[in-house]
Amino acid sequence: MWIKAMGSTSSYVSSSSSSKWLGFVAAVWIQCISGNNYTFSNYSDALKSLMHLTQLQLNNLSVAKDVGKAFGLLAGLASDRFPTWAILLIGSVEGLIGYGAQWLVVSQRIQPLPYWQLCVFLCMGGNSTTWMNTAVLVTCIRNFRSNRGPVSGILKGFVGLSTAIFTTLCSALFADDPGSFLIMLSVIPFAVCLTGVFFLRETPPDVSAGDDDGEEVKYFGFFNVVAVAVALFLLAYGFIPSPSMLVSRLFVAVLVVMLASPLGIPVYSYLKGRLGGGNDVERQRLKEPLLQIPEKENEGVVAEEEAEIVKRAPEVGEEHTIVEALRSVDFWILFVSFLCGVGTGLAVMNNMGQIGLALGYPDVSLFLSLTSIFGFFGRIISGTVSEFTIKKAATPRPLWNAASQLLMAVGYILLAMAMPGSLYIGSILVGMCYGVRLAITVPTASELFGLKYYGLIYNILILNLPLGSFLFSGLLAGILYDMEATTTEGGGNTCVGGHCYRLVFIVMTGACIVGFFLDILLSIRTKNIYTKISTSKKPKKSLGTSNRQ
């Protein structure tokens, strides 16, 4: 009977482990299509000419898109009350409607909508991604608690690649037609999320212990290799001059195969668990506590601990309620520094079409791909390396944010100088540093304020996206551009030359410097927390030695 029980237990553990990894593969696929909110520049010029908009009006449309993220608080609240599949379904349907309506306008299948209605549909499209991202990040961070950095880096990395994936697919299949691009943004995310609802789910911590940390690191390493290969593949295709239809279709086929390759991880995990099930059970037994406290005594201890917690506010590194997090000085330091990084980065992405025209580049698809691909490298490298430096040297994760702010300021200075080639270098630096900010802030928030209300805390931080878009893109870039622009026939305006955005980049450089000092301050304030995290991640050699004896 014991042998039969052991067999059934090993089967359960292996299937749970493979289910967890299958869910992570689904999460990667969802992240590959959930960066559609960063693709506004691909069709913004079509909207501007079709509706005869000024640059300020066009920038306010991009703000409306980003305002949709402000309603991500609803997704955060829902993440603690509804299953993952329901959150994914809401986001996919909302995106289908939001981007579908924009496709009807740009493809001229209907008359141009009133300005306010178009703002509503852009807002819906922007909000749809918050449901997808919340479902994916909250579920995966909870499933892989001991490797939050790599999880965040990989998932956010694929979000960074999504712009390049959509842009390159549209270029390969539809010759950069804005209408075809928008139909892709509405249909593909809907189909992928419908697939994801069957596989992405939260795994209880005691079950997810089937894989040890070493195995998880190896599996995450494979995901990193696939992600880097996809990024290099997309980058190489972007430099092919006028590829033929055969080459384009071959590219799409290879890309699909590359994105499907991570399915080998859950298959391998399942087979390994079935064939070596006894080891899994033994590992589960070794992870049980050596000292069991009787249930009644344990209840008394828990009651005493709860009474003690009620008497004092939680410290940074402990579980926080929403109110407790909002009362924390460290939360607002993280919030404002995040605004300085992602707000300015969004301004560049939203205005890339007009920045390119001002500097003499009518086609900005390459610059959008550079921003996306190097944003991916920033996310995936910072997630993995920051986790490594925490384990080895207890380096506070916010220190990586500080480095990214400084490098981003260098990128804005280069863009302000408007030298030949500066848009290439500036796109790379801004994209990479924007990616670092997103990948580092996600695990930092969970480490400082806990996982219990992480979904809502994450979406409060994401409020910086619409706020930053409004401040730096809608107000700063829109107003200063219109001051430099000349009116065109039909009511729009245009500006050509390095002076069009120079003052905008100078102001954003100053914002990055402010963010740099805030991140340094947060690193100093949280040094002790990361020392404790580093200690907890190191193997307990004495325990291993006693077990062998």
From TrEMBL:
Top-rank lineage group of the source organism: Eukaryota
Annotated Nodulin-like domain residues: 20-267
Protein's membrane topology: Multi-pass membrane protein
Record field: transmembrane: 21-40, 115-141, 153-175, 181-200, 221-240, 246-265, 331-349, 355-378, 456-481, 501-522
Compartments in which it is found: Membrane
Chief location category: membrane
Keywords: Membrane, Transmembrane, Transmembrane helix
Pfam families xrefs: NFD4_C, Nodulin-like
The keyword Iron is assigned to this record: no
Name of the protein described by the UniProt record: Protein NUCLEAR FUSION DEFECTIVE 4 isoform A
Organism: Glycine soja
Phylogenetic lineage: Eukaryota, Viridiplantae, Streptophyta, Embryophyta, Tracheophyta
